[in-house]
Amino acid sequence: MLLLEQVREIGADEAPVEEDTVRVARQALLREVARAARPDRVRRPHRRAWAGFGIGAVVAGTAVTAIVMGSVVVAPVPDVAAAAVLESAAEVTVGAQDTQLEPGQFLRIETQGEYLQFWDAAWADDDDESTFAFNASRERADAAVLVRDSRVLYVPADRSGDWFFDWGTADVVKSFGDRGAEAAEKFADWPAATGRESGTIQTLPAGEFLAPDGDTPPQPYLADTYRPYYSEMPREPEKLLDWLRARSGMSGVEADRWLVAGLSDPSSINLMPPELRAAFFRAIAMIPGFEVVSVDDDQATLRYVVTGHRTTTIAIDTAHGLVDSIAEGYGTGGVTGDVPESVIRVSTTVVDSAPDPR
After folding, report:
1. Residue 76: exposed, middle, or buried by beta-carbon count in 10 A (0-12, 13-18, 19+)?
2. Which of 33, 99, 132, 325 is the most exposed place for a label (fewest CB within 10 A)?
């Protein structure tokens, strides 16, 4: 029995509990699970006690050991606190109304992306116009800018109809390094920096748009990238995880790393049908490597680290079963310190109309 199903069975014959009370209790439970699973609260770090959490299939059968060349190798296991957070999000998602629209309504998905652009002063000072200064690495950059790209997508109740995409704006919101102000000015002058003209609203038939001119042949892109596969994606978490891993063409931990690296756009998860999104959260819960960073009110933050390469941080709205943000970091240091390379935040609301294309 799943964790929250056990909680629900307690006092089932008693008077109904107010939803706010359930929400507060759920968050308190998640905070306690997160605290209980922290390494500094465990006396024997090499052993983890699973009993009592009732995560079911999320952790059952994963604590497997093998004897190899005379030594004991412990198989990676999902973190119990991270599994509890994802199970809570899945539980809420099953009955979610966030993506269930009346005819004529739209989901308004506002996306705010922040991206670091690293600048090399020597390349900037080069008279060769073909030299692109914003192509430096974190380690060798003399300056950097943080670019905020704000856009809005309107998704109709009937997803086969016209979607509308407000391209918004892209602006430098912060600069780093002694020549940061100069880098910010150069970025603003770069023709491709802001993409389309500010205020452009594009019609996307059935949510599709074509790649920029010059691609041969032009390739269609979907705003909800999993939609072509909805019918074949299993709703059972274990089978769904196998399906996701198989798409990587890899095996073992490399398949899981590929899968987590693909979680770069929160909208691709949030736009899934509720039952599939719930299965997706439960599938992700079975991936070893996620850990809880924090649980505050209705938001829980998880982290997945590929040592020496990438850190993925995911914030989940546990009251609605939606992803709030996903951050990707490929290191620390240099002029930007510990600022991650990218952070994508989303806010989803239901509206009765979309703006006219222009």
Report:
1. middle
2. 132
Closest CA to 275 of 90, 3, 97: 90
Three-state secondary-structure class, residue 192: coil
Q: What is the pTM of this model?
A: 0.74
Give the 3-state secondary structure of residue 72.
strand
φ and ψ at residue 34, rounded to 5 degrees: -60, -45
Token digits for 148? 């905020």
Q: Which residues of 184-193 are buried (b: 16+ CB within 10 A; e: fewer)?
A: bebbeeeeeb
Task: Name the amino acid, one letter, at 58.
Answer: V
pLDDT tens for residues 321-335?
Answer: 999 999 999 988 999
Query: What does the pLDDT look like over 163-172, one tens digit per residue?
Result: 999 988 888 9
Angle made by CA atoms 349, 240, 318, in degrees to the nearest 5: 35
Task: Count CB-CB contacts under 10 A for residue 269.
Answer: 23
Single-letter code of the amino acid located at 323: V
Strand, helix or coil at 264? Answer: coil
